[in-house]
């Protein structure tokens, strides 16, 4: 360690001051300023992502494990050098069950006195709604029981009629079922005919996120314990939206990748993932007589890549779709382009928000550097090891998985068929 430079012609007072500064520096009272823990997107990668507590320093620009593949080893290294206690301290504001204007409260609908003990919902028209929601539920928070069914026999006197992307009846009289309409597409438009509207935004009567398991129950969840050193990025898209294709084409031209979908395909055809990862064919769906579909092995194939590129069709507030949650569930790090408030829906430090970088070249450089540093990469998986942090518990709790009880509770507080004609 060098002594601070003091010019030879300084006065005695100046020399004394210089000596005092030197003593303070040696004692640790005077410290050099440390770089920020968070990535400064306007700075160079040399300033990116550092831990500075207790002399433990992660720098993706100086600490490289070229082409590391052992994810378990990276996790163990992160546990020993960083750990959950320090990660939670860094994210203390987010690690508490913080509220967000982007998300409704989980217990919405049971704050009012319930008027019914049992609620029946008849699903009349649907597009994406999975059959596995069909069930008789006990809703513990309210004590209401809830029958959710597509069978008019089981719900011959329904309290609510459910419509997805199909118009409800124009009018409703007292004594007739409430009209429920759900639209989870980007435009998210009310019809003007519904008594209860379900959408993806917190301002809707009932908010439903894409984070649940019911969207992908049949997927193969074999998660690879090792990552490819190359290619780095998984990409699959068969809806070739112009804006998305332009971003993907430019970014992926700078990163090694596999593109399995129709758009920008570079694996000699669609549905080729099983030829790369034949062990991914062991899902429950592929055991049937029908040929396995691409979605049967989606998560398993994704899990072999360090990164998954997820670009929404439309960049709309709170419109965070399964594209992002598939990547998180598969054990990869999403590179995300979409909702500007995406951080309200995901665990802290789990997603690379591509829109926060000045250029796609900066983003590509960051991804390459991160891919070569096992400790910095493992930091993006800290939420898997440290419990539910930030708003992520609420995001999962507001998913399609819990929709039947949340809807039945709201219908129950309004009185079902006996509700007035202007219940919301």
TrEMBL record:
<dbReference type="InterPro" id="IPR038577">
    <property type="entry name" value="GT10-like_C_sf"/>
</dbReference>
<dbReference type="GO" id="GO:0032580">
    <property type="term" value="C:Golgi cisterna membrane"/>
</dbReference>
<dbReference type="InterPro" id="IPR017177">
    <property type="entry name" value="Alpha-1_3/4-FUT_pln"/>
</dbReference>
<dbReference type="GO" id="GO:0046920">
    <property type="term" value="F:alpha-(1-&gt;3)-fucosyltransferase activity"/>
</dbReference>
<keyword id="KW-0472">Membrane</keyword>
<comment type="similarity">
    <text>Belongs to the glycosyltransferase 10 family.</text>
</comment>
<keyword id="KW-0328">Glycosyltransferase</keyword>
<dbReference type="InterPro" id="IPR001503">
    <property type="entry name" value="Glyco_trans_10"/>
</dbReference>
<dbReference type="Pfam" id="PF00852">
    <property type="entry name" value="Glyco_transf_10"/>
</dbReference>
<keyword id="KW-0812">Transmembrane</keyword>
<keyword id="KW-0808">Transferase</keyword>
<keyword id="KW-0333">Golgi apparatus</keyword>
<feature type="domain" description="Fucosyltransferase C-terminal">
    <location>
        <begin position="231"/>
        <end position="414"/>
    </location>
</feature>
<comment type="pathway">
    <text>Protein modification; protein glycosylation.</text>
</comment>
<dbReference type="InterPro" id="IPR055270">
    <property type="entry name" value="Glyco_tran_10_C"/>
</dbReference>
<protein>
    <recommendedName>
        <fullName>Fucosyltransferase</fullName>
        <ecNumber>2.4.1.-</ecNumber>
    </recommendedName>
</protein>
